[in-house]
Amino acid sequence: MEDDGTTRAVRAQRWSARLAVLAAAAAVVLLVASGLGGVAMVFLVLAGTVVTAAALWWALTRRGLVRVLAVLLAVAAPLTVIWLQVRSGVLWVMLLCLALGAVAAGAGWEALALDARRKAQPTVAVAPPARPFLIMNPRSGGGKVERFGLKEKAEGAGAEVFLLDPDHPSDVAAVARAAVAAGADLLGVAGGDGTQALVAGVAAEHGVPFVVVPAGTRNHFALDLGLDRDDPSRALEALTDGVELTVDLGMAGDRVFVNNASFGAYALVVQSDAYRDDKVGTALQLFPDVLTHRAGPRLTVRAARTTLASPQAVLVSNNPYRAGDRAAPARRDRLDRGVLGVVSVTVESAAQAAGLLRGDRSPGFTALTAHEVVVEADAPEVQVGVDGEALMMAVPVRCAVRPGALRVRVPRHRPGVPLARPRLNWRRLAMLALAR
User: Fold this and answer.
1) Model pTM?
2) What are the two backbone dihedrals, phi and then psi, of residue 411, each rounded to the nearest 5 degrees?
C-alpha cells in the first residue's frame, strides 16, 4: 500500500521528535561529561542573565550617573561570563551545547507543528462591489500611496478615491459616512491602523464591507488578516477578486480599535509631543518617572474576575495575541473569537524585572481573555493609546468586544497567517520519538 500524505507527515513528525530528543540528550550528556566546570558555567550564565536584566531595569528607572553605571553593568555582565568561559576552557562546551539546543528546539517545533494545525478563518465568495470608496493618506508609511501607485490602481479597479490633505486634516469618519450616504457599497483605507479603525467603525455601523490596504508603517491589522505588507497594491485585488470574512471589533469607551488599546507606560510616553520625532530619547527621558509611578495615575484593571493593582503597562487587544510564541508574539491567529486579550506587566524592583525572564510564568506578567475590561485610576482621566493614537479618556474606561461586527473583503489569493510556533512539550516529544 502506498503511503499517503498523512502517513508521510506522521513519519516525518516522529523522526523530527527523535532528532529533538537525541540532540537535547546529547547536550545534557556533554555538560555532565565536562565535569563541575561545565555545570558551574550553566549557573554562571543564568546569573549573568539575571544581573543584565536587573541592570537594564535600573537603566530605565534612573537618570544621570546611576543610569550610566547600570548600562555599563548590563554590558559587563555578559562579557564577564564569556571571559570566564574562555579562561576555564569550557567555552567550546557551551557553544556546542547551544548548537545542540538549537537543533533540539528546531526539530521539536517541527515535530509539534502537526499537532498545532488549525482551521483557517472561514471566508465566503462575494460579487465585486458596484461603488467602492477608498480613503488614502499620501504621507502614511513614508509615501506608500504614491510609491505603489495605489490611487491609480484603485481607480482602475472602479473605486472612487479620496486623498487626505496633510495640511488640512479631515474628519475621516465623516468622509466615510458621507460616502455611504452617497451610495458607496464598500469602504476602504490605505493608511495606518488608527485611520483604519475609524473607517472600520463606520463600515460596521452601516453594514458595508471594508478593505484594508496596508500603506501604513506597521500595518498590524493587515498582518493578522494575512495580507501582503510588502506590496500593498495586492490588497486592491479584493475589489475585483475578493472573498469576505467576518471579524470582531474592540471598543475603548466609544472609540473603535482594530488592534489594541494600551494603558500605562506606553500610553503616557506617546502623549509627549516629542515622541514622534525622537521615540527612544523621549522614552528614556520619561520612563524613570513612568515606571516608578512618579508620573501618571495608578491603574486598577478588572477583567474576568481578576483584579490587577498598579500595573505599569496594560494592553487590551481585539482578540488575544499569541502566548508562548517568542518568534512572533505580536500576532493574532484569529480575529473572530469574540473575546478581548489582556496583557499586563507589574514590576516594582530589579528582582521582579529579572523575574520577567520567565516569560508568561513570571508573577509580574499576566495574560488572560475577557469579554469586558474595566480600567480605573486615581485620577479623573487616563492616557490611552488606541491603535497608536494618543487620547485622554474619562475613567473608568470600559473596553468591550463587538463579535462579528465587521465584514472584511480580502484578496482570494494572499499570504495568509503563518501557524504559531508551538510550545516545546518534551513529554509529547518523547512519546512521538518512542512511537512505532
Assistant:
1) 0.84
2) -60, 145
